Amino acid sequence: MLKLYYIAGTCSFVPHVALQWSGLEYVAEEVGRDTVKSAEFLALNPQGQVPLLTDGNWALSQNIAIIDYINDLAPDKGIYGVAANNDPKARAKARQWLAFANSDLHSGFKPIFGAARMIEGEEAQNKLKTNACDAVAKMFAGIDQVVAQQDYLTGNSISIADVYVYIEMHWAQRCKIDLSQYHNLNAFYQRVEADDGITAVLKAQRLI
Hints:
By secondary structure, the protein is an alpha+beta fold. Helix content is 56%, strand content 9%. Strands 2-1-3-4 form a four-stranded mixed sheet, with helices on one face.
């Protein structure tokens, strides 16, 4: 039995959706930020982070690795987009956007969420957050240009890369990052949110 450990609203939202799309039998267990530092959890993932996927006694961490594994178990479910099932270029493009969301864009939020751990002094922390918010906003420019031409990042079918960008737009809202200059992002956000699998995970994680 597949089991996903997640913290609601974090990047573990993404493999949760992948599991929902896959049709595979799974359970999802919400854990607290204290739980991931417990000896029991660290025995499964010494990094003390989510997401964490277990398959029996076997454990796997890191978003991209987990998503790839789910895709390998359910290769016909369009996790990287419908076209990606038979087109290696489409699959590679989806992975490109997934890597961007997982590394570049996600890393941009770290100074916003963790300024107090990075630098001392309230003034310096606020400056760091302001600069980070500006940098994150600029990273959405390329996404806005792409979804001006097509419904999703890889074409006209949704992929797991869209899900990662969607949850990061959710973070941007929480952080009050102004994305209003990008006129195509809101429609993109609404298209992604309308997906049945995403709606199911939003409800499961009590985000709506």
